[in-house]
């Protein structure tokens, strides 16, 4: 039985090894060597850990380590790598793929277009081409198999019968992929390409590749050479071909944040606002949450449980729902907040158009969403304070404020500090709040890249990468890397404070 198990295990491992090698070689053949190496390393490690008797303990650790490498380390390193490139909507391809795309560009000779019909002959097909009185026919073709060489056509007399009835349009469309890959040769050597659902025609490429990697325009003779500083094929006059290609730009995306005056201004303002939003939110939520926790801890207060439940509701409701509700409440023309302000003070603030009011609105909403969390934390911490301290304080005649500043605050501030740092880090990247409430608006004027006065770093990065800034993935990746290191520093501070508490 043991021998049978070993044989079965060896067969399974061998089969999985073959599958792994096939995947790696497929990726290598597709021009993705890094992916091939990654798949081979990860798969090989898994096979070794789970097939070897000496790595029993590693079988429990491997899923977590592999998941961390695959879903944390790899995206981080990939993002950092993009930050050193010009990757954007105009530089999506590699140089080789950009050259290949341009070499595929050209035009069909409409004056020499041939209509075609497809005729079945058993499991094979024949192509019949016709142009006025000229008719040409192919040998039987098996379209299920890719045909790499051009197919030679033979003349067919005008009065000769067709081999069989022509297939209808529906059948032609089923064979479209195979027909598009075909190249046909006329008796005079003319090469025909697929030009449409019913046509083949000669194809005249627009560009010709040079031995030095350049591209020559066949019609005008202009030569475009790859400029690996800008990521474009350029001629001597500076004219560029689209699409561009990816190149390394070093630290230019990072230096742009500091040295480009047109970019530095909005970026610094957004950075300061991001820190202010996170810091003020933590401050206000702590003040309100701690105050409510102390008040609700007063035993003489009636209906404390009801008050605590009602005050916790903002945290129980999903944040995106509350944000959208507040967006309606702050509406200038129809919102309830402006209706009350108009009735009492005769004013209707434009919350979404004025930068200061928009930021104030964001702080109000974020404080409303965050104070229940602090209130619950402080309530639990206050419950852990020994009652003897308050009894001794009462005997000494201390007032409530004295109890708070001499007993309550000092005893809860240390365990609360790491949680406040976590809240700061969360609000530092609070993308949902900005995206749903203001979408970063109102915008700064006369900027190279669209930037909003209520944008924080993460929403600004999103706009640069995916919306109205030309999909500048390289710059967005550089900003994302900066955000990562800032949050990492906060996490290290959090761990240090937690350790010091222990």
TrEMBL record:
<dbReference type="InterPro" id="IPR035277">
    <property type="entry name" value="MalF_N"/>
</dbReference>
<comment type="similarity">
    <text>Belongs to the binding-protein-dependent transport system permease family. MalFG subfamily.</text>
</comment>
<comment type="function">
    <text>Part of the ABC transporter complex MalEFGK involved in maltose/maltodextrin import. Probably responsible for the translocation of the substrate across the membrane.</text>
</comment>
<feature type="transmembrane region" description="Helical">
    <location>
        <begin position="270"/>
        <end position="298"/>
    </location>
</feature>
<keyword id="KW-0472">Membrane</keyword>
<feature type="transmembrane region" description="Helical">
    <location>
        <begin position="60"/>
        <end position="78"/>
    </location>
</feature>
<keyword id="KW-0762">Sugar transport</keyword>
<keyword id="KW-0812">Transmembrane</keyword>
<feature type="transmembrane region" description="Helical">
    <location>
        <begin position="361"/>
        <end position="382"/>
    </location>
</feature>
<dbReference type="InterPro" id="IPR000515">
    <property type="entry name" value="MetI-like"/>
</dbReference>
<feature type="transmembrane region" description="Helical">
    <location>
        <begin position="416"/>
        <end position="437"/>
    </location>
</feature>
<keyword id="KW-0813">Transport</keyword>
<dbReference type="InterPro" id="IPR029345">
    <property type="entry name" value="MalF_P2"/>
</dbReference>
<dbReference type="InterPro" id="IPR035906">
    <property type="entry name" value="MetI-like_sf"/>
</dbReference>
<feature type="domain" description="ABC transmembrane type-1">
    <location>
        <begin position="271"/>
        <end position="494"/>
    </location>
</feature>
<feature type="transmembrane region" description="Helical">
    <location>
        <begin position="34"/>
        <end position="53"/>
    </location>
</feature>
<dbReference type="InterPro" id="IPR047103">
    <property type="entry name" value="MalF_P2_sf"/>
</dbReference>
<comment type="subunit">
    <text>The complex is composed of two ATP-binding proteins (MalK), two transmembrane proteins (MalG and MalF) and a solute-binding protein (MalE).</text>
</comment>
<protein>
    <recommendedName>
        <fullName>Maltose/maltodextrin transport system permease protein</fullName>
    </recommendedName>
</protein>
<keyword id="KW-0997">Cell inner membrane</keyword>
<dbReference type="Pfam" id="PF14785">
    <property type="entry name" value="MalF_P2"/>
</dbReference>
<keyword id="KW-1003">Cell membrane</keyword>
<feature type="transmembrane region" description="Helical">
    <location>
        <begin position="473"/>
        <end position="495"/>
    </location>
</feature>
<feature type="transmembrane region" description="Helical">
    <location>
        <begin position="310"/>
        <end position="330"/>
    </location>
</feature>
<feature type="transmembrane region" description="Helical">
    <location>
        <begin position="7"/>
        <end position="28"/>
    </location>
</feature>
<dbReference type="Pfam" id="PF00528">
    <property type="entry name" value="BPD_transp_1"/>
</dbReference>
<keyword id="KW-1133">Transmembrane helix</keyword>
């Amino acid at each position: 039985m043991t021998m049978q198990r070993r044989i079965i295990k060896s067969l399974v491992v061998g089969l999985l090894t073959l599958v792994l090698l096939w995947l790696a070689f497929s990726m290598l053949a597709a021009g993705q060597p890094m992916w091939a190496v990654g798949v081979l390393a990860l798969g090989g490690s898994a096979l070794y850990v789970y097939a070897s008797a000496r790595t029993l303990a590693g079988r429990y650790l491997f899923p977590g380590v592999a998941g961390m490498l695959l879903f944390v380390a790899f995206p981080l390193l990939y993002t950092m790598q993009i930050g050193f490139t010009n990757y954007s909507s105009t530089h999506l391809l590699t140089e080789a793929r950009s050259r290949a795309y341009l070499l595929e560009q050209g035009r069909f000779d409409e004056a020499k277009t041939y209509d075609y019909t497809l005729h079945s002959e058993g499991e094979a097909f024949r192509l019949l081409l016709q142009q006025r009185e000229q008719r040409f026919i192919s040998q039987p073709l098996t379209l299920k198999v890719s045909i790499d060489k051009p197919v030679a056509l033979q003349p067919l007399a005008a009065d000769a019968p067709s081999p069989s009835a022509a297939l209808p349009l529906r059948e032609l469309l089923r064979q479209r992929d195979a027909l598009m890959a075909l190249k046909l040769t006329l008796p005079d050597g003319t090469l025909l390409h697929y030009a449409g659902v019913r046509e083949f025609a000669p194809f005249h490429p627009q560009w010709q590749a040079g031995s030095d990697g350049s591209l020559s325009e066949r019609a005008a003779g202009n030569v475009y050479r790859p400029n690996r500083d800008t990521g474009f094929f350029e001629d001597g006059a500076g004219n560029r071909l689209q699409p561009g290609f990816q190149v390394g730009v070093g630290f230019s995306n990072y230096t742009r944040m500091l040295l480009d005056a047109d970019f530095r201004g909005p970026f610094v303002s957004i950075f300061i606002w991001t820190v202010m939003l996170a810091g003020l939110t933590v401050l206000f939520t702590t003040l309100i949450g701690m105050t409510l926790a102390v008040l609700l801890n007063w035993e003489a207060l009636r209906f404390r449980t009801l008050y605590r439940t009602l005050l916790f509701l903002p945290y129980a409701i999903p944040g995106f729902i509350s944000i959208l509700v507040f967006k309606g409440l702050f509406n200038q023309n129809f919102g309830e907040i402006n209706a009350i302000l108009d009735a009492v003070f005769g004013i209707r603030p434009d919350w979404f158009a004025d930068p200061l009011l928009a930021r104030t609105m964001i702080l109000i909403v974020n404080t409303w969403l965050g104070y229940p969390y602090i209130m619950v934390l402080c309530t639990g911490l206050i419950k852990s304070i020994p009652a003897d301290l308050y009894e001794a304080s009462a005997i000494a005649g201390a007032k409530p404020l004295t109890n708070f500043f001499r007993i309550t605050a000092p005893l809860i501030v240390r365990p609360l500090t790491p949680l406040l740092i976590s809240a700061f880090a969360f609000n530092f990247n609070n993308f949902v709040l900005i995206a749903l409430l203001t979408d970063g608006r109102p915008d700064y004027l006369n900027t190279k890249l669209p930037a909003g006065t209520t944008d924080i770093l993460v929403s600004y990065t999103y706009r640069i990468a995916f919306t109205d800034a030309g999909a500048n993935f390289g710059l967005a990746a550089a900003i994302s890397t900066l955000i990562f290191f800032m949050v990492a520093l906060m996490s290290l501070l959090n761990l240090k404070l937690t350790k010091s508490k222990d």
